[in-house]
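Hypothesis: this fold can be encoded by more than one sequence.
Test: take the structure tokens below, design a sequence, compare later.
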């Protein structure tokens, strides 16, 4: 199964274009490129994450990390190994690019390269305006009293207007 018809989603929804594009890109991804380099995604706590990529043999200047339009791209370009002659070449030093789709409000905060493991730190920072808030309910009798006084004032104004009209 290589495709899913997303037209019912478009008929009843607004603003889910990114979700549809994400599903489409995931389904059309080349499965041979998915395995290199191997990686882990770790949940550190409710709002912090870490991505670890096994990039043994790559120097920091051969790696690139970019974020654009909610997509984190990690790429590695290994310099040509023409000076070495191998009898067996089992360590992969090939060029790669791995992409991760980031949820809304997820930001990359840093990256470290240690012992062949590239660690990328992520944090989810939801703006205060988007966080759920609790609205307090006033239970004082003053609120009910002012509504009653307002209704009584409106009734007396209506009576005096009728009296003036009849006179």
């Amino acid at each position: 199964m290589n495709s899913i018809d997303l037209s019912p989603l478009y008929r009843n929804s607004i603003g889910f274009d990114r979700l549809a594009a994400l599903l489409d890109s995931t389904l059309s991804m080349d499965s041979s490129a998915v395995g290199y380099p191997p990686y882990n995604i770790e949940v550190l706590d409710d709002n912090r994450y870490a991505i670890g990529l096994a990039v043994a043999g790559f120097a920091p200047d051969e790696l690139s990390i970019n974020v654009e339009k909610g997509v984190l791209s990690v790429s590695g370009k290994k310099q040509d190994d023409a000076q070495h002659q191998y009898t067996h070449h089992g360590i992969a030093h090939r060029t790669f690019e791995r992409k991760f789709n980031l949820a809304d409000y997820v930001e990359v905060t840093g990256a470290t390269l240690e012992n062949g493991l590239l660690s990328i730190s992520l944090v989810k920072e939801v703006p205060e305006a988007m966080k759920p808030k609790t609205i307090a309910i006033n239970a004082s009798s003053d609120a009910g009293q002012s509504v009653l006084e307002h209704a009584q004032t409106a009734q007396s104004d209506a009576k005096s207007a009728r009296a003036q009209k009849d006179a």
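Helices lie at 7-12, 17-27, 141-166. The first strand starts at residue 39 and ends at 45.
Hypothesis status: open.
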